[in-house]
Amino acid sequence: KKKKKTTTDICMQPITDTDELILLCKRLEKADFITVDTEFLRDNTYYPKLCLVQVADDEGAHAIDPLAEGLDLQPLLDLFANENVLKVLHACRQDMEIFYLLMNDLPKPVFDTQVAAMVCGFGDSVGYETLVTKIAKAQLDKSARYTDWSKRPLSETQLNYALGDVTYLRTIYRRLSSELKATGREAWVDEEMAVLRDTNLYWIAPEDAWQRLKVRTNKPRFLGLLQELAAWRERQAQERDLPRNRVAKDETLFEIAAHPPRDEAALDRIRGIPKGFSRSRAGKSLLQALEAGMNIPDKDLPHIERAKPRPATPPMADLLKVLLKIKSQQAKVAARMVASSQEIEAWAAEPQTTDIKAMHGWRYKIFGADAVKLMEGNLGLT
After folding, report:
1. What are residue 87's DSSP bridge partners?
2. What does DSSP say about strands 60-64 and 110-112: parallel, antiparallel, or unpaired?
3. I need a surface site. Which of 40, 134, 136, 352 has the fewest CB within 10 A?
4. Are β-strands 33-41 and 60-64 bridged in parallel, bridged antiparallel, or unpaired?
5. DSSP class of residue 10?
6. Model confidence pLDDT, tens digit, residues 107-132
7. DSSP β-bridge partners for residue 148
8. How many other CB atoms are found less than 10 A from the CB of residue 87?
9. What is residue 310's predicted lDDT score, i.e. its pLDDT?
10. Per-residue DSSP letters for 112-134?
11. Facing residues of 13 across strands?
12. pLDDT tens digits, residue range 7-62?
């Protein structure tokens, strides 16, 4: 008698052949949902290096080796784009970035169990291991967490660890999905998932890279030079697939923007610039970026609004935070999903002019309405 497959069937042999991948994806496209995870490295590169993709449905779990010679991942990417199959991941932002780079699009639809767990009372940014323990009643072997996933062959320990990240996820998804349906909170998760579907999260335009830097001055010319230098570094990092700081550290960009070198020799004297760098192709393009920054017309220079002196946190902010904690615990939802500390403090300081998300929709019902009463003196805390 043929043995019936169970939800614990795990294939320990990674898929390395395109035909085999096509067969797997044909099976998976019939599922209502699949669980997905990745293993990758990013220590020495700009882009994440995908080393393994794990997928599971009710028939079993499989590892796919994207480093295998001749393997075409297109069948898998087509599956990720298939809107009839829900993709379930945990803390999916980094996975989504990898898939965006491969697909020039994002998988859809997607369900993030970390977001769902925050809505279902498991706390703020709950880890996968915690959900495995609390929902699947199992223990994960995390001994392979920090191994080199690019080395082949992968060990049985590595594969067990990797596949564990999708096998228990099936049980976790079913429990959270059922709870969301029972409490009518599915739309709450959809709202958070819409943020993760914004492709701007996963790609940085070089001309915008300067905005990520912690700048201590708002002098327009300095900012114009920094804008060009940061764009130069971003392009170099992308083209050479190197971490940004491997191209040039932030402090080096600040120094060059503050004291622009007039020639190659002056550039080579700057701390953090290798000797002879100015004569390299990268060095010449840096000098061109500097020239472009110097030639920006005054009217087109970027500017940063001076930050207003931050007022002392009003006592009301502390009371609102206590109320938020109480209301979040009562509603079994992570407080951070309702309002952040910064939002509470800003609102308490200027309630008439500050609009926060807690004043709208489901957040208003849970917290905002009582928060208004507290601020108006119509509600007390005991």
Report:
1. 34, 110
2. unpaired
3. 352
4. unpaired
5. B
6. 999 999 999 999 999 999 999 999 99
7. none
8. 24
9. 60
10. EHHHHHHHTTS-TT--HHHHHHH
11. none
12. 457 778 999 999 999 999 999 999 999 999 999 999 999 999 999 999 999 999 99
